[in-house]
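Tutorial, part two.
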Amino acid sequence: MFIAPFAGTARAQSSTVLAISPSTYTFYANYTTPPATLTFNITLTNVINLTSWQIGIQWDPAILKYKNMSIPTNNVFGGQSILTAGPDNTNPAIVVYGAALAPGGVPFAGSGIVAQLELNVTQGGLVPPAFSTIAFEGIGVDTFLLDKDGNDISSTNTNSLYTNAYLTGNIVTHTIAGSSRPVTTTSNGTILPNSTVINTVGKTISVNVTGNTGDIAFLYAILPKDVIKINITDLSHWNVTVNGVKQPSPQITENTTHTFVYTTFPFASQITLGVQGDWIIPELSSMLIILIIASSATVAIAKSRTRRK
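Running the prediction step on this input gives:
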């Protein structure tokens, strides 16, 4: 569809990554419902002298349906004049889109967004099990990158996966002092009941997950908002970590009373997974605990005396 200036000799750039992000859109029918539209960013990492690109993306049309593909203002050629071709969705399972710098433009080097793709979830995509890869297609024909000399820029291509299935794992509840609602965790690893740790200084709730080293684990956490929450409506304000390292794209949804966090990670014996918000339930002070114990003891003595009478 897109006519490049000319095709030159391929030049290896193994560090360049062309990716569809997020890499996974995972939903579990017994906990969450997929939204009507999935939004993907097509990104480039570590590219040099980029002057034109063309992207072909395919999916399962029984699960997903094309809605829109666009070039955001903050794209890799942002602020410069570009020539575009497409998007072409003649085939209901594929979209092809291309852009090139207008004559006199400055080639791009670095990392950034190329385009944005929106796919609607069909009725079939709402019925588990439903799976669809969202993948680059026609590498070298429909999908390619060119430098300022018209040479191919070699890249590692990373696809995405949409999944809607039933969640099977170990469901564990955690009673939180001061809240009538427990924290619930589900994982294919092992989590001890009532093992969450609350850090009031860092506003973090964390849990340890154990499993076989090398396995890919998942954790789904249901967090009551009277235990931990953020103060704004932007869900990206949540900070999810694995062994202290921030997760790049956890799946987070919410309703009026709870926040739902899903993330995957590789096992390395024991994993500590933390979720940080803006507010967390305060821990009971030692003096308050003493007062509660004293109050309970007083009630017990009073009942004992009443029975003697």
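Residues 1-13, 284-307 have pLDDT under 50 and may be disordered. In part three we will examine how such features are distributed along the chain.
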